[in-house]
């Protein structure tokens, strides 16, 4: 479904991602692990076009993502939802409005400016919050929630996009173990029940082993391991 073909990304002298080839099938739950600076974040950002490769191509269902423009690009950025380490909510807006922002790429700019969401969209947003057990926070300012709650709001916002792929960049790196578990359980549940492909950067092998069916190990921009979680031994 998703194919990363000989992709390299340079930042000046730095080669952040170096000739990476990866193919991901629909419904996989993939953990990307590696030290800080290994290129994990750059890889995810290239998939949803926050940045572009210096060389190589990224294809989704056979279409080259890097050539998408305008409406087709918005469509792609709606199909692949992104979750960040620092949640990236709008802290002064209430939780429900933050979740509705997942609809941005579904709508015309005028509707967005007017802040017009349909009754169905509001019902869907509340359902997403209920699913993540945080519906009671719907009218609170997002910035006042705990980190674990904020990340669940970000997941609800991602669900509002009705994505095919969720890209999570260190989703639990800022959370305590209990909240980390809740967030990873939620991502695994969404993957299992909805069949949404999940690709998540993680900095601990343990978490990747527990939740992911496939682990990709990166070091200095290259893929150094790619296989089933059980196959990964400590020295890798
Ligand atoms: P990871 O997510 O594995 O920590 P990154 O993809 O963030 O790794 O970074 C890989 C390398 O690319 C690092 O050396 C980092 O400093 C560099 N890098 C990432 N983004 C930029 C950028 N916008 N400008 C310059 N260098 C960058
Ligand atoms: P992480 O290690 O969590 O992947 P970083 O802290 O390395 O993230 O990077 C955070 C942000 O800074 C990213 O947007 C990344 O692209 C950018 N960045 C990373 N390294 C550099 C760099 N050397 N020069 C400029 N921007 C960078």
**C-alpha Rg, in Å?**
18 Å
Task: Tell me the major beta sheet.
Answer: 6 strands, mixed
**Number of strand elements:** 10
Structural class: alpha/beta
Number of helices, counting only DSSP H or I runs of 4 residues or more: 8
Q: Which compounds are bound in this model?
A: adenosine-5'-diphosphate
Strand content: 25-35%
Looking across the biggest beta sheet, what order are the strands in? 6-7-8-3-9-10
Mean pLDDT: 92
Overall body shape: globular
Distance between the termini: 27 Å
Report the uncertain regions: none
Fraction of residues in helix: 25-40%
Can you write the helix and strand succession as a string?
EEEHEEHEHHHHEHEHEE
Pfam family, one: ABC_tran
GO molecular function: ATP binding
Keywords: ATP-binding, Cell membrane, Membrane, Nucleotide-binding, Translocase, Transport
InterPro entries: AAA+_ATPase, ABC_transporter-like_ATP-bd, ABC_transporter-like_CS, ABC_transpr_PhnC, MetN_ABC_transporter-like, P-loop_NTPase
């Amino acid at each position: 479904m998703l194919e990363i073909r000989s992709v390299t990304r340079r930042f000046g002298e730095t080669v952040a991602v170096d000739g990476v080839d990866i193919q991901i099938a629909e419904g996989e739950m993939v953990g990307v692990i590696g030290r800080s600076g290994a290129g994990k974040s750059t890889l995810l950002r290239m998939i949803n076009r926050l940045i572009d490769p210096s060389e190589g191509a990224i294809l989704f269902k056979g279409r080259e993502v890097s050539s998408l423009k305008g409406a087709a690009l918005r469509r792609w950025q709606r199909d692949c939802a992104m979750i960040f380490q620092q949640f990236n909510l709008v802290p002064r807006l209430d939780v429900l409005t933050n979740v509705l922002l997942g609809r941005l790429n579904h709508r015309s700019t005028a509707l967005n400016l007017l802040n017009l969401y349909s009754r169905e969209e509001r019902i869907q947003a509340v359902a997403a919050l209920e699913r993540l057990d945080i519906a009671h926070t719907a009218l609170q300012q997002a910035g006042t929630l705990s980190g674990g709650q904020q990340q669940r709001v970000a997941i609800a916002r991602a669900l509002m996009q009705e994505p095919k792929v969720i890209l999570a960049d260190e989703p639990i790196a800022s959370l305590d173990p209990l909240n980390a578990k809740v967030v990873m359980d939620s991502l695994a549940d969404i993957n299992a029940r909805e069949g949404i492909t999940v690709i998540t950067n993680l900095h601990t092998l343990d978490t990747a082993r527990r939740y992911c069916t496939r682990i990709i190990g990166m070091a200095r921009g290259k893929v150094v391991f790619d296989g089933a979680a059980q196959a990964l031994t400590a020295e890798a």
